[in-house]
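User: Just a sanity check before I run the rest of the batch. Below are the structure tokens for the first item. I only need the designed sequence back.
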């Protein structure tokens, strides 16, 4: 006969979705109405990892998806819209529901392009004064003083 406390059922879908939006173990445990240690023990028992490693895996997936979506927003993308239209069948006179698909474009997001440029390309809003007013990486041809 087993003794001890009854195991608390953990809603793993809720845990995973909260981890995926970067919630802490403390916040997840509080939401579930359990102690931090109960959550950490359940993760070790059910998932075979400590909480930190388990959360790191799920957060990495979310970070990748977020980054991919940021790039999609920055460059724009196609959207397929589905519209249901009711028409009358000329042969039978019955109403028939048809689905029409329409492609539209989501335009590039200038703010997202600026953000990603700052993040990955080192761009900034401030004027670069490190090069004494010259355009960095450019040789201006034809502006030399005439020696005569």
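Assistant: Here's the designed sequence for the first item:
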């Amino acid at each position: 006969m087993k003794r001890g406390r009854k195991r608390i059922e953990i809603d793993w879908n809720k845990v995973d979705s909260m981890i995926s939006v970067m919630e802490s173990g403390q916040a997840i445990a509080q939401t579930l109405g359990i102690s931090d240690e109960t959550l950490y023990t359940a993760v070790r028992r059910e998932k075979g990892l400590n909480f930190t490693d388990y959360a790191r895996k799920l957060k990495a997936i979310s970070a990748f998806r977020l980054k991919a979506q940021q790039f999609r927003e920055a460059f724009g993308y196609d959207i397929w819209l589905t519209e249901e239209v009711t028409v009358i069948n000329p042969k039978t006179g019955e109403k028939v529901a048809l689905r029409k698909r329409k492609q539209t474009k989501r335009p590039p997001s200038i703010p997202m392009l600026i953000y990603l440029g700052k993040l990955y390309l080192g761009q900034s809003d401030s004027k670069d004064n490190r090069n004494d007013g010259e355009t960095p990486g450019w040789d201006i041809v034809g502006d030399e003083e005439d020696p005569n």
